[in-house]
Write a structure and sequence with these properties.
This protein is of the alpha/beta class. The protein is built from ten helices and eight strands. The protein is globular. The relative contact order is 0.16. Its EC number is 3.8.1.5.
Length: 270
Amino acid sequence: MTTGYADSGDGKLYYEIEGKGEVLVLIHAGFVDSGMWEEQWESFTRNYRVLRFDMRGFGKSDPVTGPVSHRHDLYHLLQGLGIKHAHLLGCSMGGETVIDFTLEHPEMVLSLTVVSGIPGSFEMTGEPPSEILEMLQALEKGDLDLVSDLQIRLWVDGTFRQPEQVSPSVRKHAAEMNRVAVKNGTWAIADASPLNPLSPPAAGRLDEIKVPVLIIVGSLDNPEILRAADLLENKIENAKKVIMPDCAHVPNMEKPEEFNRNVLNFLRNL
């Protein structure tokens, strides 16, 4: 494995890369870091040259000082490593990032896997989860432990489960990663108001995506995430959707063997 730091132009990104063959880039969700891919690493690096990295404000990368553009950071990282073409796999905010990147740099993308992701400017319906308001209130009070707990309840447990119904090891691992971003204030500083959002936004441009696309979503995730998956499937010509049962927003952490099989079967059949 090769590890290092790449200059994004406004901070350093920590990355790891291992394996041979076509490049597969893994982009984490916006409440954890690249450690969320631990259960994918060995399986994927046997078949591909796999790159994972911590977005700014997460994990071992530099903290953020203002809004960031994750798709621009991804571009600088790939350019710095001399990677001209890659398969992209992103979860949640990482999924939104890879969709935007594909629309902006279609010549660099071999395939796209979107996990629990929504396209930019996707219009949510209904009442937001109660945890969102509670998180904002906890942030105002500086109660970072509660902020972290609420994020795990929202994204790992999901809408339809109680904490005791979820693997304790998955919750613990996610919480350890999440505390770094919460301590850095990443969401409030950078992600609540992204820098230079894609224009026009992705939600109205999905038919421009021509590469093969795999959409993975957990059956117990927020219904709006599943609705976004339907939109992606219906609007992208070469899209295939997989609903993984009995898991929520991070299906790769809850059911790694099933997740790995879905991704590798998709990539092998391109």
